[in-house]
Write a structure and sequence with these properties.
Order of helices and strands: HH
Shape: rod-shaped
Number of helices: 2
Helix content: 55-70%
Structural class: mainly alpha
Largest sheet: none
Radius of gyration: 27 Å
Protein backbone atom coordinates (compact mmCIF):
# COMPACT_ATOMS: atom_id res chain seq x y z
CA UNK A 1 0.00 0.00 0.00
CA UNK A 2 1.20 3.55 -0.71
CA UNK A 3 2.38 5.90 1.99
CA UNK A 4 -0.01 8.72 2.88
CA UNK A 5 1.43 12.16 2.11
CA UNK A 6 0.19 15.44 3.51
CA UNK A 7 0.16 17.78 0.52
CA UNK A 8 0.05 20.92 2.67
CA UNK A 9 3.22 19.87 4.46
CA UNK A 10 4.98 19.20 1.16
CA UNK A 11 3.88 22.57 -0.24
CA UNK A 12 5.06 24.46 2.83
CA UNK A 13 8.40 22.63 2.88
CA UNK A 14 8.95 23.44 -0.80
CA UNK A 15 8.26 27.16 -0.24
CA UNK A 16 10.62 27.18 2.78
CA UNK A 17 13.35 25.60 0.70
CA UNK A 18 12.85 28.16 -2.10
CA UNK A 19 13.03 31.02 0.40
CA UNK A 20 16.23 29.58 1.89
CA UNK A 21 17.81 29.38 -1.56
CA UNK A 22 16.81 32.98 -2.31
CA UNK A 23 18.16 34.16 1.05
CA UNK A 24 21.47 32.38 0.46
CA UNK A 25 21.76 33.96 -2.97
CA UNK A 26 21.06 37.42 -1.54
CA UNK A 27 23.59 36.92 1.24
CA UNK A 28 26.23 35.91 -1.26
CA UNK A 29 25.56 38.94 -3.46
CA UNK A 30 24.97 41.69 -0.89
CA UNK A 31 26.11 40.43 2.47
CA UNK A 32 29.30 40.90 4.41
CA UNK A 33 30.68 38.58 7.00
CA UNK A 34 30.81 39.76 10.59
CA UNK A 35 34.60 39.95 10.38
CA UNK A 36 34.38 42.28 7.36
CA UNK A 37 31.88 44.55 9.14
CA UNK A 38 34.04 44.66 12.28
CA UNK A 39 37.16 45.44 10.25
CA UNK A 40 35.42 48.27 8.41
CA UNK A 41 34.13 49.74 11.68
CA UNK A 42 37.58 49.51 13.25
CA UNK A 43 39.15 51.30 10.28
CA UNK A 44 36.59 54.11 10.46
CA UNK A 45 37.09 54.48 14.22
CA UNK A 46 40.87 54.62 13.85
CA UNK A 47 40.67 57.22 11.08
CA UNK A 48 38.26 59.33 13.15
CA UNK A 49 40.58 59.20 16.18
CA UNK A 50 43.57 60.15 14.06
CA UNK A 51 41.70 63.09 12.54
CA UNK A 52 40.44 64.27 15.94
CA UNK A 53 43.98 64.10 17.35
CA UNK A 54 45.15 66.62 14.73
CA UNK A 55 42.44 69.21 15.33
CA UNK A 56 43.44 72.65 16.44
CA UNK A 57 41.78 74.67 19.12
CA UNK A 58 39.52 77.32 17.60
CA UNK A 59 40.46 80.18 19.91
CA UNK A 60 43.61 79.28 21.87
CA UNK A 61 43.85 82.71 23.62
CA UNK A 62 40.25 82.78 24.78
CA UNK A 63 39.13 80.35 27.45
Amino acid sequence: MAEIVNLNRLRKERTRQEKRLQADANAARFGQTKAERDLGKARIDKATQKLDAHKREENPGEA
